[in-house]
Design goal:
28% helix; Branched-chain-amino-acid aminotransferase; binds 4'-deoxy-4'-aminopyridoxal-5'-phosphate; amino-acid biosynthesis; D-amino Acid Aminotransferase, Chain A, domain 2
Length: 290
């Protein structure tokens, strides 16, 4: 069983207990990060912590550690579990309060760090591509809960995931309220048309993904033009290539959307090049664990 970090202590995950009065549990009041370590290097840890602290700031949630202290705790959690490759989940909730939703009645935030493994999709899908559908649920609007905040309220995305899985698909694409493509349930989306890479801007309802930023850097390095712009399902259906990016999913090709075959139905050449390069750089930008 993994050893987890819980409020300053390292404990057996079986014994790690969070109060039922924790507002993360009662109200989804909190934020989280998903981070990967590759071969003993935590990928872009600083970027993940920057995003975490920014999200907490937006929610007026004071994380009780500095970023440096938190980085140490993340590294220590990976070490305690003797992992070189890991998926790390960092959760900060408002903490224990009463049954009302007033966050100012919560004494102190709860901080949890888990280092474990994750497999989102079978290998076969990384080789041959995902077939996905568009959800009838829309991505949260920036006028409500800003999709930039990875809050503990993922119900919008979970409803889309349920819809996809019930329909026999592993993943769903979400549109924003205006009907523009936003992202998938836990991944950013890219399309390739006539040699140019397109991805929706944050304002369209896409999380500022760290894998997304890495892919944009890779494309720049490879001389592939990248444009952040609003686009519709028409652009997806008629794209030459499509792929998704996310910490857990990494980079995975999409070969069918709503029964429309993308390109020739196989992972595209630019997609493959980017995925290949992603594998090369993922141990380069990070913090050493050991
Ligand atoms: N969108 C959503 C809704 C997500 O939950 C994630 C996963 N964090 C992503 C996109 C991808 O972001 P990242 O590459 O930073 O993991």
């Amino acid at each position: 069983m993994p050893i987890v970090f819980l409020n300053g202590e390292f404990v057996d995950s079986e014994k790690a207990a969070v109060s039922v009065f924790d507002h993360g549990f009662l109200y989804g009041d909190g934020v989280f990060e998903g981070i990967r370590a590759y071969d003993g290097v935590v990928f872009k840890l600083d970027d993940h912590l920057k995003r975490l602290y920014n999200m907490a700031k937006a929610l007026l949630l004071d994380i009780p550690y500095s970023k440096e202290e938190m980085a140490d705790k993340v590294l220590e959690t990976v070490r305690r579990n003797n992992l070189k490759d890991a998926y790390i989940r960092l959760v900060v909730s408002r903490g224990k309060g009463d049954l009302g939703l007033d966050p100012y009645k919560c004494s102190k935030p709860t901080v949890v760090i888990i280092a474990d493994k994750i497999t989102l999709y079978p290998d076969e899908m990384y080789q041959n591509g995902l077939k996905i559908i568009t959800s009838t649920f829309r991505r949260n609007s920036i006028q409500t809960l800003d999709p930039q905040i990875k809050s503990l309220n993922y119900l919008n995305n979970i409803l889309a995931k349920i819809e996809a899985v019930k329909a026999g698909y592993p993943e769903a694409l979400l549109l924003n309220l205006e009907g523009y493509v936003a992202e998938c349930t836990g991944d950013n989306v890219f399309i390739v048309s006539d040699g140019t890479l397109y991805t929706p801007p944050s304002a369209a309802g896409a999380l500022g993904g760290i894998t997304r930023a890495t892919v944009i850097d890779i494309a720049n390095k490879l001389g592939i033009p990248v444009v952040e712009k609003y686009f519709s399902l028409f652009n997806v259906y008629t794209a030459d290539e499509c792929f998704l990016t996310g910490t857990a999913a990494e980079a995975i090709p999409v070969t069918e959307v709503d029964k429309r075959v993308i390109g020739d139905g196989k992972p595209g050449e630019i997609t493959k090049k980017i995925i290949e390069e992603f594998k090369n750089v993922r141990t380069l930008y990070g913090t050493k664990v050991y």
